[in-house]
Amino acid sequence: MSTHEHNYSSNHNGTLWFVHDCTLQLDLGYRRIALFLLYLLIFMLGLLENALVVWVNWRRRHSANGVLFCIINMSLSDLMVIVILPFFMMEVTLDHVWLWGRFLCKITNLIFIVNFYSSTFFLAFMTLERYLSLTRPSYPAFFPVVGRRRWMLCGGLWVFSFFLALIENIHVDVLEWDEPGCYMMPENNMVEWFVSVAFLGLIFQFLGPAVVIITCNVLIARAVKTAPDVQERRDVWVVHVYSLVFIMCWLPYHIITILIMINDIDPFLFSCNTVEFTYFSFSVVHTLSLFHCVANPILYNFLSKSFRNNLINTVVNYIPREVTMGQAGAGNQPSAPSGGRGDPGKQRKLSNTSTSQSDVGS
Predict the structure, then answer these.
(1) Which UniProt keywords apply (predicted)?
(2) CA nearest 99: which of 87, 108, 109?
């Protein structure tokens, strides 16, 4: 994450007019503290939320519909990157000094970039699957309940994410300057590699998925609004929140990346203050983009009545039978949960018009 910062400082040491033109004073110490606290918050919340999502939904993975299958894979992807966050927390604390060797340098970066792509891919396919299940029930699902197609498409998305990550990771290594650091530093054509990696991320991780996610969510909201059997439409706004959260997490990161990419191509295009602020902001927006690991479980699971009921039922199953029987005997007969067994027609109606992603086919 500090590669561009190092390149900037090393490539412009000889340009005295450029250095003297800088008047912007930025506190790197406060940034390290802020980044450490952000990493810590994302680690604690993301680990708890995504672990619960996988724990509750994993037992239904074979019979669940395509939407829930994508949710499981997306949470697994987010869990992968959350597990390696302690390394980044310590790296930030030590001012980008890497003390854990070449192997962990390459592995942690590979996991991070695989999540960078795979989480967004599964989010886009989940939104598309959701749109098709609501508006075209007879259309064949991308992730059918049974058959090889589900696993082949799922494996294909993971392999494609790994391939895109490998393009960057092949040049990641521990480099010794004043202190060891984990950087992506190609030996030749440095600028071309940085621009290529940034461009691939912009196209495959942001622009392509954004078109699918925003378009499908707009169509879903329109379909739910016009559904004749829906009495309450207050949850329609949640669909637009899905798109808004995706844009808020990733747009600042890609804007800063584009500015860095332009500066790599033409180092004298921007003023010194602009360049200083751009590189200073890169680590911040890079960390803030990880809030998708916290927001996705809330939006696509915890807002769903179906998920909350399954969470309660899963927890109850792990409570000793004597405790549950004693509580049932002390009170009235327990009533069936709102998302449990009820009128099948009513359940299907709610499923077809719900704006919650994990309510489909529950």
Answers:
(1) Cell membrane, G-protein coupled receptor, Membrane, Receptor, Transducer, Transmembrane, Transmembrane helix
(2) 87
Sequence-ordered list of residues with C-beta below 8 angstroms from that of 220, at least 6 positions apart, any chain: 127, 130, 131, 134, 135, 239, 355
Q: Please list, residue by residue across 249-265, b when 16 or more beta carbons sit within 10 angstroms of its beta carbon and e when fewer do.
A: bbebbbebbebbbebbe
d(CA 193, CA 306) in angstroms, rounded, equals 46
Residue type, 358: S
The one-letter amino acid code at 251 reads L
The better pLDDT of the pair 261, 149 is held by: 261
With residue 175 as reference, give the H or E element that holds it: strand 172-176
The pLDDT, as a whole number, for residue 307 is: 86
Write the CATH number for 127: 1.20.1070.10
CB burial string 89-114: b at 16+ within 10 A, e below: bebbeeebebeeeeeebbbbbbbbbb
Does 15 fall in a domain? no
pLDDT digits 0-9 by tens, 77-120: 999 999 999 999 999 999 889 999 999 999 999 999 999 999 99
pLDDT of residue 202: 95
Query: What are the helix (H) ranges across the chain?
Result: 3-11, 16-20, 28-57, 66-83, 85-93, 101-135, 148-169, 190-200, 208-225, 236-265, 272-288, 292-297, 305-317, 321-330, 344-353
Say whether pLDDT at 321 is over 80: no
* Whether this model's pTM surpasses 0.70: yes
Q: Flag whether 292 is in a domain.
A: yes
Bridge partners for 173 per DSSP: 183
Tokens of 69: 């299958």
**Structurally, how many domains does the chain consist of?**
1
Is residue 269 one of the residues assigned to a domain? Answer: yes
